[in-house]
Amino acid sequence: MPGLKRLRKGIIAAARSCLQPLLTTIPFCLFLLLDIYWKYENMPKCEGAVCSAAEHTKHSKSIMKSQRNFVLVLAAPLLYWLLYSATNMLVQVEKLNLQVEQLKQHHSD
């Protein structure tokens, strides 16, 4: 189909330009991981009849937020790695296509 080569090059260029700013998510994930660790180490224990209903709800919400943040910490680097790998693979394919075209031109001469 005509125009797919230009579309592919545009997508590769857009993905490559997004990779560097998205790298800032890695330090943020490390910070979030340290925050989760600190919360679990310093979390007051709410067990049995010692806690009121409001304290128990607050404690449960805090645990759920920490679990959600942990999922985000795992997902962000994984998605970054997938984008990086796919972009890198497409760049390599493009380089190989150029080499094949050059060899074909050189061989036909």
Please outline what is shown here.
The protein has 109 residues and is mainly alpha-helical. It is 84% helix and 0% strand.
Helix-strand topology string? HHH
Please indicate the percent range of residues in DSSP E strands (runs of 2 or more): under 5%
Per the principal axes of the C-alpha atoms, what is the gross shape? rod-shaped
Runs in which pLDDT lies below 50 for 5 or more consecutive residues are none
Profile the largest sheet: none
C-alpha-based Rg, rounded: 24 Å
Specify the number of helices: 3
**Helicity, as a percent range:** over 70%
Class inferred from helices and paired strands: mainly alpha
Mean pLDDT: 85
Strand tally, please? 0
State the end-to-end distance.
Answer: 28 Å
Family: Belongs to the BCAP29/BCAP31 family.
GO biological process, one term: endoplasmic reticulum to Golgi vesicle-mediated transport
Keywords: Endoplasmic reticulum, ER-Golgi transport, Membrane, Protein transport, Transmembrane, Transmembrane helix, Transport
Transmembrane segments: 21-38, 70-91
